[in-house]
């Protein structure tokens, strides 16, 4: 479990701005120094992402080809069968992944969906992989069910700054997202949460996003930083490109603010040259998605990743076991806290 020593939760915009204002080489040197204090600099964690239910999402995220609000020609797919998901997980494990992430294009799962999803978590866990899911908003009891099934991580991105948020999504609020993250934490699971750059936001918005993530009560264990993939048919298809060096700066600042988190290169890696990816690893990125499909946008072929790792002398980080005992302890702590709350509530009423 992440210890809180050396991790600050009181970053101000001015302090983050000062990091962005550093000369590029100074910023990268500082980020690499922080990185080396907490991680093996020559290891990258590798996850595989599978879309278990694709398209027809009622949300209106302006970057997303899966939203039912935009016509992107995406082929829709109902919730996959549990067996088919487990077959994909086995392939991912054979290809060297240590974590298997399952994503469903839902506003939130219904209680009718939950039994299938819980079976998927249990099955993937039994294969010896870490498990991660992204299913949209969660209610408290759904987060508890996922934790009890053994889910290690829940992904729910903040996407951007609170100020820019309603230019990108109108069907749910920033607070909705924070509430889901709260339920995930309370249930004893780890959090994967980050955002997307290059959506037409300002430099201040990028600062605002990193500030939100860093100042959460407990920083996310995994922080995906995505570069927008402009998909035809979405409202952001013609937005101006973000300077690639600005993207690298964001990775470096994320590394400094969240020294113990895995900073993940996510969507948009396809468009990055090998040299740019190498620079992001130097800036402190130490996690990638691996596999041919990153939900519905193309991901560099796995082979290209392996070749790049070889050229850079990078090894795949082996799974850090959170023992079953540790996970059980987290869940028991949560249940006990709930009981205590209930007793307190009963006592005062
Ligand atoms: S990002 Fe997720 S919630 Fe938003 S439209 Fe796409 S699938 Fe739905």
UniProtKB/TrEMBL annotation:
It comes from the Bacteria. It catalyses: (4R,5S)-dethiobiotin + (sulfur carrier)-SH + 2 reduced [2Fe-2S]-[ferredoxin] + 2 S-adenosyl-L-methionine = (sulfur carrier)-H + biotin + 2 5'-deoxyadenosine + 2 L-methionine + 2 oxidized [2Fe-2S]-[ferredoxin]. Its cofactor is [4Fe-4S] cluster; [2Fe-2S] cluster. InterPro entries: Aldolase_TIM, BATS_dom, Biotin_synth/BioAB, Biotin_synthase, Elp3/MiaA/NifB-like_rSAM, rSAM, rSAM_sf. Belongs to the radical SAM superfamily. Biotin synthase family. Catalyzes the conversion of dethiobiotin (DTB) to biotin by the insertion of a sulfur atom into dethiobiotin via a radical-based mechanism. Homodimer. Its EC number is 2.8.1.6. This is Biotin synthase. Keywords: 2Fe-2S, 4Fe-4S, Biotin biosynthesis, Iron, Iron-sulfur, Metal-binding, S-adenosyl-L-methionine, Transferase. Pfam families: BATS, Radical_SAM. Residues 42-269 form the Radical SAM core domain. Gene3D superfamilies: Aldolase class I. The gene is bioB. CDD domains: Radical_SAM. The keyword Cell division does not apply. Binds 1 [4Fe-4S] cluster. The cluster is coordinated with 3 cysteines and an exchangeable S-adenosyl-L-methionine. Binds 1 [2Fe-2S] cluster. The cluster is coordinated with 3 cysteines and 1 arginine. [4Fe-4S] cluster binds at residues 57, 61, 64. GO terms for molecular function: 2 iron, 2 sulfur cluster binding; 4 iron, 4 sulfur cluster binding; biotin synthase activity; iron ion binding.
